[in-house]
Amino acid sequence: MAVMMMREAINLALHQEMERDPDLIVLGEDVVGGMGTAGGPESVGGVWRTTTGLYAKYGAERVIDTPISESAIIGAAAGAALTGQRVVAELMFADFIGVCMDQIWNQVAKFRYMFGGRTRCPLVIRMIYGAGVNAAAQHSQSPHAMLTSMPGLKVVMPSTPYDAKGLLLAAIRDDDPVIFMEHKALFGLRGEVPEEDYTIPIGHAQLVREGGDATIVATGQMVGFAARAADALAAQGIACDVLDLRSTSPLDEEAILDSVEQTGRLIVVDEGPPRCGLAGDIAGLVSSKAFMALKAPIEMVTPPHTPVPFARELERAYLPQPEQIEAAVRRALGLQGA
Amino acid sequence: MAVMMMREAINLALHQEMERDPDLIVLGEDVVGGMGTAGGPESVGGVWRTTTGLYAKYGAERVIDTPISESAIIGAAAGAALTGQRVVAELMFADFIGVCMDQIWNQVAKFRYMFGGRTRCPLVIRMIYGAGVNAAAQHSQSPHAMLTSMPGLKVVMPSTPYDAKGLLLAAIRDDDPVIFMEHKALFGLRGEVPEEDYTIPIGHAQLVREGGDATIVATGQMVGFAARAADALAAQGIACDVLDLRSTSPLDEEAILDSVEQTGRLIVVDEGPPRCGLAGDIAGLVSSKAFMALKAPIEMVTPPHTPVPFARELERAYLPQPEQIEAAVRRALGLQGA
Amino acid sequence: MQLSRDALKQAYRQMKVIREFEERLHLEIQTGEIAGFTHLYSGQEAVAVGICEQLTDDDRIISTHRGHGHCIAKGCDVKGMMAEIYGRATGLCKGKGGSMHIADIEKGMLGANGIVGAGAPIAVGAAISAKRQGRKGVSIAFSGDGACNQGTTFEAMNMAVVLKVPCIFVFENNHYSEHTGDAYAVATASSIAGRAEAFGMRAWHGNGCDFFEVHSIMAEVLAYVRETGLPAAVELDTERFFGHFEGDAQKYRGPGELDRIRSERNCLAIFREKVTAAKLLEGEDIDAIDAEVLAEIEEAVGHARQSPRPDPADALTDVYISY
Amino acid sequence: MQLSRDALKQAYRQMKVIREFEERLHLEIQTGEIAGFTHLYSGQEAVAVGICEQLTDDDRIISTHRGHGHCIAKGCDVKGMMAEIYGRATGLCKGKGGSMHIADIEKGMLGANGIVGAGAPIAVGAAISAKRQGRKGVSIAFSGDGACNQGTTFEAMNMAVVLKVPCIFVFENNHYSEHTGDAYAVATASSIAGRAEAFGMRAWHGNGCDFFEVHSIMAEVLAYVRETGLPAAVELDTERFFGHFEGDAQKYRGPGELDRIRSERNCLAIFREKVTAAKLLEGEDIDAIDAEVLAEIEEAVGHARQSPRPDPADALTDVYISY
Ligand SMILES: Cc1ncc(C[n+]2csc(CCOP(=O)(O)OP(=O)(O)O)c2C)c(N)n1
Ligand SMILES: Cc1ncc(C[n+]2csc(CCOP(=O)(O)OP(=O)(O)O)c2C)c(N)n1
Ligand SMILES: [Mg+2]
Ligand SMILES: [Mg+2]
Fold first, then answer.
1. Is residue D220 pLDDT above 80, yes or no?
2. pLDDT at D39 over 60
3. pLDDT confidence of B44, banded at 50, 70, 90?
4. C4 Cβ partners below 8 Å, 6+ apart?
5. Residue of D235, D234, D237 whose CA lies nearest to D210
6. For site-directed labelling of C308, which of B37, C22, C143, C231 has its Cα 20 to 30 A away?
C-alpha cells in the first residue's frame, strides 16, 4: 500500500471522485492558481496543494477559481448543490467562516428543514483549521464546536491520511451538507493509503489505543497527542482507551459511553476554545448518560480562554500538550505526580 | 418604583447613559427610522422600539441609522470604539451574527490580545434573540453558546426589566466588548425599575428561588420557565435553587458549584442548541469541579438538534417547557412520574 | 413582443392572485390566526409576474423575506402556500418554514429567504448549474433596495461576471427598507443599476408598476443572458402598498402617499386600463378573472383553515436525509 | 506642491526603511528563525509613504495582512516591529500578534489585519470618530485588488457615503491576490476606482510606483476630504516584488516579469532618478541615507535577536481589561 501525506490523500480522493462523478465540481480561492496571470493557470492547487492537478484534468467548468468572497463561494456552492451538482467548496482557513457564516449556518444547514424536507444539498465544505504553525489569532482556530452545534450539518475531522481519503469520499457521496475539517499541522503526516476506492462511514469513532484504566477522547491533531500520552502511560503500566471521534456530528455516543462504562474515567482532549466546546459537550453526555459508571471527576484538557497567540513559546503554552494529557489521566486515577 | 416593560427599561438605560456620557453613540438599522423618507426621521426607535426618542434628543451625529450592512455596522462600531467613542451597536436579530461574525469574532474580540494589550474597545453589541414568537429558523435562534466560546467577549443575558437596565448600564461602562442579548419574548415582561442610575456587576448569578433539593441553572426566558417548574415542585414539597446566570461570560462558577455542593443535583436548562452548548458547558464544569458532590446524573433540558420550526405546535415542541424541567428535577431526585 | 389574449389573461390572473392573496392575508392576520412575521408583496406584482411569465422550470429564482409574489409567479401551489403561512401540516413546508421560507425546488423556486442579501450568492450557484446543464436556463436573484447594500449582493455580482454565468440580478426598488428610505441608505452616482454596471455587466432600469414595461425589458434581458450566458442586472421601481411587516404604523410615509400609490401606481389598474384601451381584452374578461381569483383565494383559505395542524413529533424530522 | 529637501530625504528614508526591512526579512526567514506567515511589502513603498507622509496622529489608517510598510510609514517603532515578527517579548504586541497583527493605536495605526476585507468597515468607524472629534482628521483603509472583492469593502464604501464621513479607501492594485491575477478576479467596467465612483464618491487613479504621483494625488484627495468631510477612493497601480508569502514559487509570473518590475517599476530607483535629475537631492545624500538605513535595520535585527522570548505565562494575559 502506498505511503503518502495527508494532503496527498485528500488530493487523491478529490481526483478519484472527480473521475467517478461527472456532476462533482470544486470551487474556492486559488484552487487552480494563476488564473488571469501571464504565467497562466498553473494548477498549483492552492496554498495547501490539496487541489493540485484538478484543473489540468477537469478544466475550468468543474474546477472553479473564485475571487476573495467567501460568502459568495459558499452561497454559490449551496446554489449549485441545490440544483443538481455535487460540490466541494474550500475555505483556505476555517477562521474564515466568520465572513460566510450566514451561508453555512442559516442557509446550507437549514434548507432541508425550512423547506419541509423537500430538498437536498450535497455539499462538502473543506476548511483548514488548527494551531501549531504560529499563524496567530486569525489563522489558527479550531471552530468545530460552533459547527457541531448547527443542526443540519455533519462535521468530520480526520486524523490520518487513511481516514482523510475514506472520510472525504464518504462526505462527498453524502446527500447532506458536510463540514470537512483538515488540520494544517497534519497535512504532512504520512500513512498508508490504498489506491482503490473506499469510504469510511461518517459517525463512527475509532479506538486507536485500547486499555481499561481510563478513556481519552480526542479529534484531529489531539488524537496523536493523546496516543503519545497513552504510550507514555502504558510504559508506567497504565492502559488507556484512546477514542478518535472522526466526526463530531454525528457523534458516536455509543463508543464513548461503552468505553467509560468499562473504565469509569473520562479525559476529553480538545483543541477548540474551552467554553461551550466539544470537551463540555462530551462531559455533559457522559455525566448524564454514564454517570453511574464514573469513578472520578471528568478531566477536560483544552486551551485556555484566550485567542491563539503568535510566538512559539506562547502557542505551545496555548495548545494542550501530551504531558498535560498524561497528568490529567493520572489525576483521574488519583495517582501522585499529577 | 416605576413598573415598566423590559423594552422600556432598555430604552430608559440608553436615554440615561446618552445623557450622562457625551462620548456614547448608538448605531444600527432603523434605530432612528424614517431617514430619507417623506415622513422624515420618526425616532420610532426600530422594530423593537428600544431606541425610541434617542434621535429626537441626541441627533444624527450620536444616533446613527445605517444601511443593511451588518459587517459594516459592527466594523464601524469597532473602529469608533477603538478611537475614543463608547458605542452601542444593535443587531435587529441575533441570527444576523451570521453576516457579521468575522467582525465580532476575529476583530472586536481579539484586538486587545493581538495588539498585546495596548488597546481598548468599549463596545456593546445588543442583539435580539430567542424563540417563542413563531419567527422560524432564521429569526428565533439563541446563539449565546457560540458567543460565550469567543475569548475577548463578555456575554450578558438579562431576564428581568430591573436586570436589563442595571446590566446594560454596566455593559456600556465596561471597557471590554460586551454582547448584550435581549430575548424578544421578554420585551413585554413587566417589572419594577428604579428611575435612578444603578449598575449590576457583570459576572454574578442571581438566586431567584432557594431550596436545597436540586439546582436549576438557566438564563433569559428559561429563568421564568425554571421558576415556574420550581414553584410547581415546591407545591409538591420539593425545594429547588434556581440560578439565573445573568451572564455566561464571565460565568459565576462559584455560585453554581456552591449550590450543587448543597443539593448534589444539577438540572441545566438552556434555549440554545443541544450540541456544544451552554448546558454541556456547565455540566462539564460541575462534573469536573463538583463531581464528588453529585448524587445523580446531570440533567440537561434543551431543544432538540433541529432548526427552530415555524408552526405554533412545532415551536412549542422545540422549546424546553416548564413541565420538562419539572420532570427532569423529579428524575434527578429519583422520583416516580418523571 | 405582442402577447396573445391568453397570455394577457394569464399574466393578469397571476398578478391578481398575488394581490388577493396578500390583501386577504392582511385581513386574516388581524384575526390573530396567523403567527410570525409576514411581509406582503401587494403593489409589486408586475415585477414578479412580468419576469416569471417568461421563465421555464429550467430557470430558477431565489426570493426574499417578501416572497409570496415570487412564489406564486413561479408556480408554487397557492393552497400549499396558504396552508404553510397558516402553519398547517399540509403547507408546502409542512408548517416548518412559514411565510419567510416557502420554496419549491422542482418548480425552480429556491426559496423565500429571511436573511436580507442571502439570495444573490445562491443564485450564482444556480447559474453555475444552468451553465453546466446546457439548457439555456438562467437564474434570477430578487433583491430589494435594502438588500442591495448587503456585502453578499456585491460579492455575487462580481463573481457572476468573473465566472461568466447566466445570473440576473433583479433589484425591486420599492424605495423603503423597513422604515428607511432608499434616498438615505443607498449611495449611488446614478442608480442601483449603475452600481451593477460598474462590475462590467449590462444593466437595465425601468418602471416596475407597468407590467408591459417589465415584460419587454425582461424579454430583452433574457434574450441577452440566454444568448451570451453572461450575467445582467435590472432595477425596477415599484411600490409597497402595505407596511414593512404587518403592524407597521408607516409614519415614514408622506401625506397622501399611500392613496397616491394605490391609485396612480397600481399595476393591476394600469394593466386593465392599457389592455382595455387597446382592446386587447374586454372589461368582462378581467371581471371574470377577478371573480375566479377571489374564489380561488377563498378556497385556499378554507383549505388552510381545515388542514390539520402539524404533529409535534414532526419537529424532529427533515433535519438530515440520514444521520 | 514642492517638497523641501528635508521632506524629500524623509520620504526617501521611509521608503528605504520599508524596503530594507522587507529585503532583510526575506533573508532572515530562510534561516528558519522567524515563525508563521509573513507577507512582504517590497515594491509598494511609494504608496504607503506617499500617503502617510501627509498624515498626522489625528489621522488613522488600517492595514492588511501585508502591513509592514503601512506600519513603518505611519510611525511604528521599527525595532518593536522587528522584535514582534521575531516573536519576542519586546515586540510591539509582546509577541502575541506577529507580522499580521502589528498595531499602534496612539500613532493612529489601527493594525495590520489577517482577514482580507476586514479593515474597510473599521476605517468607517474611525472616520465617525474623526468627524466627532472635529480636528479635520481622516481615516484611511488600505485594501488590495483581492480585498476589493470582499463584501465588507463594498458595505463600507456605501456606508461611508451614507454617513458622510471622512474615510479614504485606498486600493493598492499590485495585480495579484495570492496566485490569481486581477484580470481574472476583479470584474469592472473600468477600474476598481470606477466601482467606488458608482457609490457616488469621488475617486482617483494613478501610478503607485511613483512617489511624486502618489503624493500629489493624495494631497488633492486629502484636501478634498478634510474640506468636505466626505469619503473618497484612490486606486494605485503598484508591484509586489516578492511572492504572496515567503515560500511562494510564483509560477504565475510571466517570463522576465520580476526582473522587469524590479528595474522599471522600482519606486526607490524612480525616486532617486527624479530627485537627482531635478537636482533636488545629490546622489551622495541618498547614498548616505541608504547607509544609515542599513545600519538601522541591522540594529533592529540585533535588538530582536537579543530580546527575551515571551514568558509562556503571558499567553493568558491581555484578553480582557477586567474579567
Ligand atoms: C441580514 C439581515 N439584516 C436585517 C434584516 C431585517 N430586515 C428584514 S427585511 C428588511 C428590509 C429589507 O429591505 P429591502 O431589501 O428593500 O426589501 P423590502 O422589504 O423593501 O421588500 C430588514 C432590514 C434581515 N432579515 N436580514
Ligand atoms: C477573508 C479572507 N479570505 C482569504 C484570505 C487568504 N488571503 C490572505 S492574503 C490573500 C490575497 C489578498 O490579495 P490582495 O487583497 O490583492 O492583497 P495583496 O496580497 O496583493 O497585498 C488571501 C486570499 C484571508 N486572509 N482572509
Ligand atoms: Mg425595499
Ligand atoms: Mg493584490
1. yes
2. yes
3. confident
4. none
5. D237
6. C22
Q: Which of D116, D171, D176 maximizes ligand 2 atoms within 8 Å of its Cβ, making it the mutation to test the pocket?
A: D116
Distance CA D7, CA D5 (A): 5
Residue with cell 462534573: B287
Q: Which chain C residue lies closest to D181 (C-alpha atoms)? A: C162
How remote is the CA of residue A99 from the centroid of ligand 2, in Å? 13
Lookup: cell for A253: 455516543
d(CA B331, CA B233): 12
User: What would the pLDDT profile of B129-162 be if each residue is shown by its tens digit?
Assistant: 999 999 999 999 999 999 999 999 999 999 999 9
- Does this model's pTM top 0.90? yes
Distance, C-alpha D55 to centroid of its chain: 13
Residue B54: CB partners within 8 Å, gap ≥ 6? B14, B15, B18, B26, B31, B32, B43, B45, B62, B63
Which numbered atom of ligand 2 lies nearest the CA of A99? 1
Q: What is the ipTM of this complex?
A: 0.98
Residue type at D296 in one-letter notation: E
Mutate to test the interface with D, among A43, A310, A315, A321 (most CBs of D within 10 A): A310
Residue whose CA lies nearest to ligand 1 atom number 25:
C115
* Sign of the four-CA dihedral B63, B64, B69, B70: negative
Residue of C nearest to A36 (CA): C162
Region of residue B47 (left: phi > 0; alpha: psi -120 to 50; beta: else): alpha
Q: Please tell me which residue of chain D has the smallest CA distance to C201.
A: D189
The confidence score (pLDDT) of residue B338 equals: 55
| Residue C114 Cβ < 6 Å to ligand 1 | yes
Nearest CA to ligand 2 atom 7: D116
Contact call for C198 and D184, based on CB within 8 A: no
> Which H/E stretch holds residue B107?
none
Indicate the residue of B37, B134, B309 with minimum beta-carbon distance to C181: B37
> Which is the catalytic residue, given B139, B183, B204, B305?
B139
**CA separation for the pair B312, C35 (Å, rounded):** 7
* Confidence label for B337 from pLDDT (cuts 50, 70 and 90): low
Question: Does residue B139 carry a catalytic annotation?
Answer: yes
Q: Inform me whether the pLDDT recorded for A338 exceeds 60.
A: no
The alpha-helical segments, DSSP class H, found in C174-282 are 182-185, 192-197, 211-228, 257-264, 267-277
Q: Which residues in chain C land under pLDDT 50?
A: none
